[in-house]
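User: Fold this one for me? It's PUM-HD domain-containing protein.
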Amino acid sequence: MAAVGSMYWCPQGLMPCGVLPGGAMPGGVLPGSVMPSGGMPSGVFPSGAMPGGVMHRCVMVPVVPPWKAPAGPVVSEAMPTSSPAPIPAPATVATSKKPCQSRASPLKVLRREAEESGEPQDKVMAKHAVEFSHDREGCLWIQQALDKASDDGDRLAIMDALRGHTWDVMRCPNANHVLQKVIVTVRPCDCQFVIDDVLQRGPEAPGRLARHKYAYRGLQRMLEHLQPCQVAPIVDLLVADGMALAMHRHGTFVMQHIFEYGSEQQQRRVIEHFASGPMPMVRNNDACMVLNAALADGDDRCREDLARAILANEGAVADMAHTRRGHVAVLTLLEVLSEPLLGEAFRQLSAQEVSLWKSRFGRSVIKAVRDQFGCTALASSAGA
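Assistant: Here's what I get for PUM-HD domain-containing protein.
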């Protein structure tokens, strides 16, 4: 290792040891130098070399104090007469990618084609509805055209262009908004092609769409605006997978819509499916939103059957009361229940009262119970 006071010859010129570029320390590796093969010396870091490293392409030159320097120029034998050969740049790897080309906006394409063909812009837009729907700017123009259409004829022209492309359109981050707008603005009988396109994909298609981060919105619009008899085949397939969908981050919203917009028969089928076996969903945050929707929007029979199924799992109500979304379902449950189920709910909650007081959401449940049913509601149920 070189001593402080020595001079080093490097591509930057003469540098005294300890004043190396890039913050290198004495005996370190100059930043940017190429290390010999065989690995890096101990203590060498890319941001600055540490003591004990290796100086590559550097030659030590003795330092001559100014008062001892000869009159003429000093040339050291150790000093190279020319700068070190430059380090070759890494060879560029040839890629097959073409240079990025600017793409004209859909509006410009629409106007240009309308001028060239002499057709109205609405007809040109309908002709390219699928292409424009997948574009961020184009999907906005399609939605505006659907809103501003003077009659159903213009909307049907756009809808016909989407026929057969439902699967890709529903899963596109842009085009899914166009399909939602079609379902909202067009008559339900004219949207039958959407149902048919989904069912053609097989019995697992509705479940896959319900789990998709964009496609589940289209299923929500179907449940909201189409006739129950139209969506019945899709709902039947969703119910068969209802337990897993209720616990999915996107599927939970579709299952909630079945209770909000579905028929009583469809709601009862979902409750029967939930109550047919163990209910792991009572301890799942996303599924608790479905339970809350069933208790809030279901009929009296659905509420009672679901409440019995929940209370049959000892401790499930208390577990729900500890969670953010579960405690909301518990509050709804207590509002719609009557004796003797209400007393059973109080008993299970009182058994975990100490634990509930330690939870932010559990405290909300206890306070709501005492405000609604009296201060001694839990205590009396515990004594019973």
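One thing worth pointing out: The longest strand covers residues 7-10.
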